[in-house]
């Protein structure tokens, strides 16, 4: 792929100065109240290239793209499209200027067909039939040209996430987009789907389209982009040619200091079995079976990573283990059966059995965003006698406890009176991790430990997880980031459609094999179950 | 990090809203050919110019404290209890039954017994909507408002058919026994050498109201139960994650809310009327919503807002009595206050917020 960039793209080797940039932003600034989201940002995106924008969460990438797409109005600065100054006030003018956007969370009507979604908002005239016919013809042509195959008559809710994303791209292309912005497009895709997406993007580039790819994954930037711009704290810190940079350099530009991209850990030294799951089945509120007979074992002193595309039952597994959901089957912790449906199936009882839980969605579940930090530090453990004084809560004890945890886990700023929502994602997560790890649990459930967390904090949280493992605790890690699974796990179980497709030793597998298992393709499924049993 | 200093949120915004409402009310009074300045002076002197005026103002205030607290507690568990009216009606029934049928030798005994009866009856009336919300997901707004009508019909039936004394034409209970009569502020202040109007209905319940504000504050911000109620109100998934049982918290919050609304009855039924009449609540249950909104659902705010609405009620009554401003216009003025402080809160809030953030940005 790197060859392709260098040989097939002469204008990247020597940028054609006579061609106007497809997008040029000059001095864009945008503040939300006291927060300066974008500060004097200038960027030139050359036509026919894939331009990556990388930065940590909250660096201002999405704000910048929202300004380009007309969702926000910049306080200062100018936008040029193909050399012409444009005043982009809303998404309609952005579309008219040839800009299309594929959002992280798709904006599709779930019970419409692909065709209906594509023409939605772009119908010609009052009658649908001619528009639909025209769109059908165009879709067929686009599918052929770019490998964008989707059945035009399929209802969107029946499509896989990867296909839904294609519909979003088709929508933009149908509206004559020449410049395509993709916001974190691979977050929800399997590795194979991501590869397919990258092939589509390469086809688009070959046809002269310009693509802006927003991501926080260094690997994707290195793999597909021609040029990359790095954002940090609302500013553009560098724009470099991808072929002339390295992941280490980009990480340093993003964070502002040297970062270790790997986790240092010794080999696991597993002890007795802590968690034993047998034939676990869970139905959701709609009666759909989400877990279809899960068997799992985790021993003391090991990390079991659960890999899988989001929505294949990992959330339900964490929830039933954490007491947020009822289920059928058997779960034993330290040899004792857990109550899965009755009065003792709630999260409080689970905590009493030595299970700590860092939930996948810390803002919705793990924290009360409007509570002070010190109120959050007891959350879930607030009935602990050490936080009580007679009839009342011992708020002084809580605040002292909070200051101690904040110091130990380097929460910044270390102010226990700030509300949870005032902390950055990484510091919010540190509060949750501190609360759960400091209870010294036998089993730690941890879901998406570093989602929306800045690189500096990722390092810290990973170290804490490994440290807990080395104290001889059992850890169940759920993450959609394969890199994270590989970095932390001593064994990897792959989930697909509510089942464990197999368990692998991270040293003896690779992304390709796991990727196939994540897509449900395996010929060793039953053996995998065996492997899990034998540990 | 916070957008605006707290004092602006707590005092400045309600004050601006209030001034806007007052300004618009002045225009309305002007439009019907009366002098708004004179009207304001009359309201102030009527409500606050004498111990008689204060006696009425504090009487209304007491009603609004209880119904305002009721709405606040439910609100902290993210429920909109608009059934304060019905819960207070049933509280009245509890008070009446206790006073009429229990041997209560002295008001010091009658007060806690009647208060308990009022709270239990009010809580029981909130229990059914609370349970339906928790277990079946029936929306609390719909059920509580329906229960207001059921309460009115039930009370009507009970008063007419069961509690009405023989030969009386009035759908009301008999007068409560002398021993259950609560001391008025006049009775309480006289031993201290403070002269207070004898005719005004403000009574010892006002002190119970102040106590209730303090207890609710303790409950919400100093106890485990309050912690769980507030956590549940902020995020139900988080509450489940923390092992807080949503059904239990919903029901408990509604019980407390209904109990507080029911407690209002010791003021209006036991303290003032000294018998149970139809429509004894007089809309105080609904005013409680505005009081809670304006008081930011904090007991201290509820107290201040209840005082304001007490003033509006008494001042408005004086206006209707002494000027040609019709009674309906008083309702208009009160409605404007509710509109600006409650419903149009954001209209004032956003510009003020912008003002503060801009100043901070320049600094």
TrEMBL record, chain A:
User: Main location per UniProt?
Assistant: membrane
List GO molecular-function terms, semicolon-separated: ATP binding; ATP hydrolysis activity
Residues annotated as signal peptide? none
Which keywords has UniProt assigned to this entry? Answer: ATP-binding, Cell membrane, Membrane, Nucleotide-binding, Repeat, Sugar transport, Translocase, Transport
User: CDD domains attached here?
Assistant: ABC_Carb_Monos_I (cd03216), ABC_Carb_Monos_II (cd03215)
Q: Which family does it belong to?
A: Belongs to the ABC transporter superfamily.
Q: Which PANTHER family match?
A: CARBOHYDRATE TRANSPORT ATP-BINDING PROTEIN MG119-RELATED (PTHR43790), GUANOSINE IMPORT ATP-BINDING PROTEIN NUPO (PTHR43790:SF4)
Q: What is this protein called?
A: Simple sugar transport system ATP-binding protein
Q: Which organism is it from?
A: Donghicola tyrosinivorans
TrEMBL record, chain B:
Gene Ontology MF: a single term: transmembrane transporter activity
**Which of UniProt's keywords are assigned here?**
Cell membrane, Membrane, Sugar transport, Transmembrane, Transmembrane helix, Transport
Q: Which InterPro entries match?
A: ABC_transp_permease
A Pfam cross-reference name: BPD_transp_2
Q: Name one GO cellular component term.
A: plasma membrane
Q: What is its main location?
A: membrane
Transmembrane segments in this chain: where?
A: 12-33, 53-75, 87-103, 109-128, 140-160, 199-220, 249-270, 276-295, 302-323, 329-348
Q: Where is the signal peptide?
A: none
Q: Where in the cell is it found?
A: Cell membrane
UniProt superkingdom: Bacteria
Q: Which PANTHER family match?
A: ABC TRANSPORTER, PERMEASE PROTEIN, GUANOSINE ABC TRANSPORTER PERMEASE PROTEIN NUPP
Specify the protein name: Simple sugar transport system permease protein
The source organism is Donghicola tyrosinivorans
């Amino acid at each position: 792929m790197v060859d392709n960039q260098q040989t097939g793209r002469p204008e990247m080797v020597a940028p054609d100065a006579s061609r106007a940039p497809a997008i040029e932003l000059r001095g864009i600034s945008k503040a939300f109240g006291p927060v300066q989201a974008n500060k004097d940002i200038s960027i030139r995106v050359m036509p026919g290239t894939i331009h990556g924008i990388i930065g940590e969460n909250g660096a201002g990438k999405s704000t910048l793209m929202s300004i380009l797409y007309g969702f926000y109005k910049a306080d200062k600065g100018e936008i040029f499209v193909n050399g012409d100054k444009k005043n982009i006030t809303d998404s309609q003018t952005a579309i008219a200027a040839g800009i299309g956007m594929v959002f992280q969370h798709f904006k599709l009507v779930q019970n419409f067909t692909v065709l209906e979604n594509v023409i939605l908002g772009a119908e010609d005239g009052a009658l649908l039939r001619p528009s639909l016919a025209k769109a059908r013809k165009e879709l067929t042509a686009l599918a052929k040209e770019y490998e964008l195959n989707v059945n035009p008559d399929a209802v969107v809710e029946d499509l896989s996430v990867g296909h839904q994303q294609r519909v979003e791209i088709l929508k933009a292309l149908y509206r004559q987009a020449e410049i395509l912005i993709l916001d974190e497009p691979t977050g929800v895709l399997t590795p194979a789907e991501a590869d397919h997406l990258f092939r589509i993007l390469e086809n688009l580039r070959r046809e002269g389209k310009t693509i802006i790819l927003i991501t926080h994954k260094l690997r994707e930037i290195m793999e597909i982009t021609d040029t990359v711009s790095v954002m940090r704290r609302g500013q553009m810190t560098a724009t470099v040619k991808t072929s002339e940079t390295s992941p280490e350099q980009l990480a340093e530009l993003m964070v502002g200091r040297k970062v270790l991209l790997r986790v240092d850990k010794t080999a696991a030294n597993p002890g007795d079995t802590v968690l034993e799951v047998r034939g676990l089945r869970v139905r959701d509120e709609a009666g759909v079976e989400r877990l279809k007979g899960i068997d799992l074992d985790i021993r003391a002193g090991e990390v079991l990573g659960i890999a899988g595309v989001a929505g294949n039952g990992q959330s339900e597994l964490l929830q039933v283990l954490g007491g947020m959901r009822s289920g059928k089957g058997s779960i034993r912790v330290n040899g004792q059966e857990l109550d899965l449906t009755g009065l003792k199936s709630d999260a409080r009882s689970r905590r009493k059995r030595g299970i700590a839980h860092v939930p996948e969605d810390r803002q919705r579940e793990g924290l009360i965003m409007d509570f002070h930090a010190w109120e959050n530090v007891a959350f879930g453990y607030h009935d602990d006698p050490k936080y009580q004084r007679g009839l009342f809560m011992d708020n002084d004890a809580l605040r002292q406890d909070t200051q101690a945890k904040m110091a130990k886990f380097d929460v910044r700023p270390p102010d226990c009176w700030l509300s949870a929502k005032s902390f950055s994602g990484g510091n919010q997560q540190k509060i949750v991790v501190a609360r759960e790890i400091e209870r010294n649990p036998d089993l730690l459930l941890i879901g998406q430990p570093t989602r929306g967390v800045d690189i500096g904090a990722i390092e810290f949280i990973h170290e804490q997880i490994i440290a807990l493992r080395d104290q001889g605790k059992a850890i169940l890690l759920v993450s959609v980031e394969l890199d994270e699974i590989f970095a932390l796990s001593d064994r990897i179980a792959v989930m697909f459609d509510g089942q464990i497709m197999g368990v692998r030793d991270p040293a003896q597998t690779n992304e390709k094999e796991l990727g196939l298992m994540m897509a449900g393709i395996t010929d060793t499924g039953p053996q995998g179950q065996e492997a899990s049993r034998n540990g | 990090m916070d957008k605006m200093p707290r004092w602006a949120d707590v005092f400045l915004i309600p004050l601006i809203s209030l001034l806007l409402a007052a300004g618009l009310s002045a225009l309305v009074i002007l439009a019907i050919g009366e002098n708004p300045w004179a009207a304001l002076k009359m309201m102030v002197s009527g409500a606050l110019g004498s111990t008689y005026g204060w006696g009425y103002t504090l009487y209304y205030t007491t009603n609004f404290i209880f119904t305002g607290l009721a709405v606040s507690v439910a609100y902290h568990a993210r429920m909109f209890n608009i059934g304060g009216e019905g819960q207070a009606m049933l509280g009245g029934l509890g008070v009446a039954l206790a006073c009429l049928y229990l041997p209560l030798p002295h008001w010091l005994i009658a007060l806690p017994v009647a208060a308990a009866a009022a709270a239990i009856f009010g809580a029981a009336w909130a229990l059914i909507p609370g349970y339906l919300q928790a277990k079946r997901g029936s929306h609390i707004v719909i059920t509580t408002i329906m229960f207001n009508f059921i309460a009115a019909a039930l009370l009507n039936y009970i008063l007419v058919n069961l509690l009405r004394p023989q030969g009386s034409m009035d759908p009301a209970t008999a007068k409560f026994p002398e021993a259950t009569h609560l001391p008025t502020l006049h009775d309480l202040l006289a031993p201290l050498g403070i002269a207070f109007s004898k005719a005004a209905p403000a009574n010892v319940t006002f002190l119970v109201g102040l106590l209730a504000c303090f207890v609710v504050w303790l409950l919400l911000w100093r106890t485990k139960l309050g912690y769980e109620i507030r956590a549940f109100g902020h995020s139900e998934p988080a509450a489940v994650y923390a092992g807080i049982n949503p059904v239990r918290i919903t029901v408990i919050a509604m019980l407390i809310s209904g109990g507080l609304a029911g407690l209002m009855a010791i003021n209006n039924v036991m303290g003032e009327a000294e018998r149970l009449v139809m429509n004894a609540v007089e809309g105080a249950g609904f005013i409680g919503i505005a009081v809670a909104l304006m008081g930011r659902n904090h007991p201290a705010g509820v107290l201040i807002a209840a005082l304001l609405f007490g003033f509006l009620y008494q001042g408005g009554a004086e206006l209707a009595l002494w000027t040609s401003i019709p009674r309906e216009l008083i309702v208009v003025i009160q409605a404007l206050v509710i509109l600006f402080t409650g419903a149009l809160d954001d209209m004032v809030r956003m510009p003020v917020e912008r003002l503060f953030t801009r100043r901070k940005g320049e600094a």
